[in-house]
Amino acid sequence: MMFVSKVWVWVPLYAFVIILLLVRLGFKKGMVAVAMLALAFLITDQSSSILKDTICRLRPFADPDL
User: Fold this and answer.
1) Quick one: which of 18, 39, 38 has its CA closest to 30?
2) From 2-6, 9-13, 21-25, 39-43, the region with the lowest mean pLDDT
3) Contact (CB, 8 A) for 36 and 43
4) Whole-angstrom Cα distance, residue 53 to residue 24?
5) The pTM is what?
6) What are phi and psi of 62, to 5 degrees?
7) In angstroms, how far is CA 3 from the centroid of its own chain?
8) Which helix (H) or strand (E) holds 13?
9) Any idea of the CA torsion for 9, 12, 18, 23, to the nearest 10 degrees?
10) I want to staple 30 with a disulfide (CB 3.0 to 4.6 A). Which of 20, 21, 52, 56 is the partner?
11) Which of 24, 46, 21, 44 is nearest to 34 (CA)?
């Protein structure tokens, strides 16, 4: 799991998906699709960070009562 959780491990897959989108959809539509995917990832990442900071609840493995 430590290997799979590294960002650089997934870079070839991301590059393959971007190239595939650009080839299949054409450059203009492919760039729109890539931008939408990037925006979706950004919104998801930021909303999860905001929720974690707002709720302030310990993860189950870090809770001393358990």
Assistant:
1) 18
2) 2-6
3) no
4) 40
5) 0.70
6) -100, 0
7) 17
8) helix 7-25
9) -160
10) 21
11) 21
